[in-house]
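Checklist before submission:
- one chain only
- standard amino acids only
- sequence pasted in full

Submission:
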Amino acid sequence: MKTMKLKKIIVCIGSIILAGNAAAQDGTVKELQAASTKVIKSMDSSGWKRGGTFILNLNQGSLSNWAAGGEQNTFGINGMLNYAVQYKKDRNTWDNFFELALGFQNATSYNKFRKIDDRLDITSKYARQIGKGFWGYGVLANLNTQMLAGYDYGSVTSTKISGFFSPGKILLSPGFSYQPNDKFSFFISPATARLLLKTDPDFFAMKMFGVAPNKKSYLELGAFASTRFTTPLAAWATYTGRLDLFSNYKRNPQNVDVLMTNLLTLKFTKILATNISLDIIYDDDIIKRTQVKEILGVGLTVNL
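Returned file contents:
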């Protein structure tokens, strides 16, 4: 059943991409295309490439004497920052990715802001090219956590279920890299160390996030693979995707951890756009079910 749901989600993403790619370009779109090309050329000449996207989405709703019912007032704000610093010279490449997301929602029934998105993810990868092909050897490091405490909200009370570096993951992976261009990269390692963290004092005595009671960390050793893909589907549409897989040799290696992120940006103007994000996570150390998060918003989108 979970497999069928994931297949349906992936098919939906593909349908959106194909539909966007089939649309026609107007004068404004062509201006956007020319501007983006100019920025890319000026960056490539030095060997360094820096750039990213800042997204700020707002949503608001209000009901008065509405027969169908619903929240009287709602207000939400969601921000996302994706930034990359990349270097390529001779046989050496160094890619750094910074991803930050934070969002809140307020409604009349609970009369306070509740967190709906929270992610901090930093990746750094160095690779040295082997021969004249696209393969190389190197090392990848990753840090993944959240910034604020998370709660499970009941009808009367709320229960704290997560916090800063609770859970947290630090990964170090020597391996092999395949990177034919700056839009696609693949990394694989048969021997990767990953440290699971549980640093919040409120959870110290509990078994949570794969860490034993009265412990703050647990070291895993396993196989790791990661791929990133970004492409302009049109001058006004861009897709960015990421897939990470990890199998822990020490505990239930058949239960492969999955992290999949997707972001589709459809621009109306240089700063206004529709953003559709879809994240899929499976990690049985945290929860033995597939986690799915989808956010659709219209707001400010700025290329940095």
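Reviewer check: The mean pLDDT is 85.
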